[in-house]
Design a protein that fits this description.
Strand content: under 5%
Order of helices and strands: HHHHHHHHHHH
Shape: globular
Radius of gyration: 23 Å
Number of strands: 0
Length: 271
């Protein structure tokens, strides 16, 4: 009596279509926002925006000499966006390792470079979306403030200044994303980002800049805040030296972390 081995069935997936890039971006967008951490970050940022508007309107109502223009509102509302939202860029990559979701992500999409590009795209969309919300809120606040203060609303926010604001926000979000890829640890990446973006410019570089002449020439080459300051000042002309300083500072804090971080993500395995 002869026995027959069970027939092996194979599934041919060679003709299976890959995951569309737009779907990857949607997934990364949802992964940033559809979590408790993402929800509370957005909620706190929204509260800070409303709180900033309320405080300024209160000052306008109490002091008739205060005049707040559209440019002033853009500066005021950019601060809350810069404080907490870069954490989204960090968590978008570090959570794949801290929560081991990368085991699923990289199994469904083995081409990690496409995943990274989708994450970067989602981060850029988040920056643009939050700035649109801030502009709309600032426009309403500008009208309300003018009515409360008894003056004509000033719409002095130029397109070049708005473009510079968007560019600077993107630079800081990409820096946060790059640091997250290099460290692959949410607490460490958040700590390093805020040290570089906030503590060093105010506590170290600011002191040196005020005390020493050599610091005024050197610091704008290595610090993003000092390098991008002329770009955000509508009364200050941007020189070739300013552009070179921004290029060097962006290379140090954006390009280098993105390159090193990409290499680490492409070669590391979530454990």
């Amino acid at each position: 009596m002869t026995t027959h081995a069970p027939e092996r069935r194979t599934i041919d997936i060679s003709r299976t279509e890959g995951i569309p890039f737009s779907r990857l971006v949607k997934v990364e967008w949802r992964k940033m926002l559809d979590t408790r951490g993402g929800f509370w970050l957005l909620a706190i940022t929204g509260v800070l925006l409303v709180f900033a508007v309320a405080i300024v309107l209160l000052v306008i109502g109490l002091d008739e000499d205060v005049r707040v223009s559209a440019l002033d509102w853009s500066t005021i509302l950019t601060i809350p966006l810069s404080l907490l939202l870069p954490v989204f860029a960090i968590q978008s990559v570090t959570s794949e390792w801290s929560q081991r979701t990368g085991l699923v992500t990289f199994s469904l999409e083995p081409h990690r470079i496409r995943v990274l590009l989708a994450k970067v795209s989602a981060v850029i969309l988040l920056v643009l979306a939050t700035i649109v919300v801030a502009i709309a809120l600032g426009a309403v606040a500008n009208v309300v403030g003018a009515q409360m203060g008894g003056y004509d609303a000033r719409w002095n926010l130029e397109v070049s200044t708005l473009a510079a604001t968007v560019f600077v926000q993107l630079v800081y979000f990409l820096m946060a994303f790059g640091i997250g890829m290099v460290l692959l640890s949410t607490p460490a990446a958040i700590a390093i980002f805020y040290v570089v973006a906030l503590l060093l410019p105010f506590m170290v570089y600011g002191t040196l800049y005020a005390l020493f002449d050599w610091a005024q020439d050197f610091i704008p080459w290595i610090d993003l805040q000092f390098a991008t300051a002329p770009l955000l000042d509508p009364n200050d002309s941007v020189s070739a030296t300013n552009i070179a300083q921004m290029a060097v500072a962006c290379t140090i804090w954006v390009v280098v972390p993105l390159v090193l971080g990409s290499r680490r993500v492409l070669s590391s395995e979530p454990k």
